Structures are given as C-alpha cells and as structure tokens.
Amino acid sequence: MKLNHLNLTVTDVAGSRDFLETYFNLKCVGSRGNGFAAMFDDDGFVLTLMKGKNVQYPKTFHIGFHQESKEEVDEINERLKNDGYDVEPPRQEHGYTFYVQAPGGFTVEVLS
Fold first, then answer.
1. DSSP letter assigned to residue 88
2. 2 has which bridge partners?
3. What distance in Å separates the CA atoms of residue 78 and residue 82, rounded to the nearest whole number?
4. pLDDT of the chain along its 112 residues, tens only?
5. How far is residue 45's CA from residue 65's CA, in Å, rounded to a whole number?
6. Can you give the residue ranges of the VOC domain (predicted)?
7. Which terminus has fewer CB within 10 Å in the chain: N or C?
8. Which parts of 1-88 are beta strand (E)?
9. pTM summary value
10. Strand, coil or helix: what is 23?
C-alpha cells in the first residue's frame, strides 16, 4: 500500500504553493483562487492545500522532503537563508537535516 495523497490546511494557499514550487519542485496542477491548490510531485503524490483560519498544527507535526545527498540539503538550506527564511544550519541527527517554517503555518523538514 502506498500513501498517495495528503491535505494540508494552511493560512496562505498562494504563499504555501509558491514555497513548495520554488524549493521542492512540486507542480500546481489546479487551483480555486486563494482557497485551494492541488500539487503533484514527480512520483504522482498529490498534496492539496486548503485555506483555513487559525491553523495550529501540533508542535512536532511536519512534512519532509528527502534529498539524495548532504550537498542537496546544504543547497536548499542556503537558498532559503539567502531568501530570508530563518533556518539553522543542517546537523546530523536521524539524518542530515534541518527544519523551516513554511508560509501558511506548517513545518518542513529537509533531510538526507
């Protein structure tokens, strides 16, 4: 069995969509104004974004994007930092990893 769909409720659909397209190569294949966006990755996974108010995920909730190498993790970290995101340098934990707060109110982990 393969997980193929996830819905995130976000405070900013357009900002979340742009963030995921820019840094994680998801493609928006359909939207309804600023209230909904359907995004696909290269493997057919569908991530939908729905507008919500007062979105509060639990502190440990996050979505993750696995990279093939530490260099790719470093590259994304540097791009985010250069674009003004508050990111700590990657560190070795359960993988080579860092976390970033995405527009829209959710956390993203990048790891190899």
1. P
2. none
3. 6
4. 889 999 999 999 999 999 999 999 999 999 888 899 999 999 999 999 999 998 999 999 999 999 999 999 999 999 999 999 999 999 999 999 999 999 999 999 999 9
5. 12
6. 2-112
7. N
8. 5-10, 27-32, 36-40, 46-51, 63-66
9. 0.94
10. helix
Tokens of 9: 């409720």
What are the residues facing 51 on neighbouring strands? 10
Number of residues that this document lists for the chain: 112
Report H helices in 41-106: 70-82
pLDDT value of residue 33:
84
Sequence ranges of the domains in the chain: 5-53+62-111
Under CATH, to which class is 5-53+62-111 assigned? Answer: alpha beta
